[in-house]
Description:
Helix content: 25-40%
Order of helices and strands: HHEEEHHHHEEEEE
Strand content: 15-25%
Radius of gyration: 19 Å
Amino acid sequence: MDTLKAFLPAPSFPKIKHWINELDVQIKITPPRKTKLGDFKGVKDALYISVNSDLNPYSFLITLTHELAHAFVYVKHKRGVAPHGTQWQDTFKAMMLNFLDPTIFPDEVLKVLSAHLKQPKASTLTDVNLASVLKKYDRVKVITISDIDEESIFSIPNGKIFKKGKQLRKRYRCVECTSNKVYLFHPLAEVIPIQ
């Protein structure tokens, strides 16, 4: 439990510890995963949560609270409700109200987090405003497609090379340089600029 303290904003730890003890949930801090920030599993009477180790303290707190909300909903309803349905949304919002405090989150995070909590999404990454603000506090800085200029050339980890185009509603329209195929990129997609 004490190792968990290092990943959270200090003032949030007592409440998180209380919820973990109340649920008797096992918390595992995992190596970074590309597809998810955290997850929850209920297996019979045992509850398990994992959270990625590379999250900044604010992202870690939001993700852990998100997964703890799943655990509370599971204890009450088992599998009888939608994973991110009304029961989860109401539980998550109520839990996060404990942390809407300037001693826990910086003002710029509080502002977008408050807006996010009006209609929480299945992932903080789908809320571009929240994800963008949280990204500023990451330990390892990455470059996203939103950080580079239109018409810039960039690559992605699989080696393909693209030219950045205009932003459509949410995503950026980009053309792969060898095939001229059009791809749409999420604003927070990690890219490697090519000079």
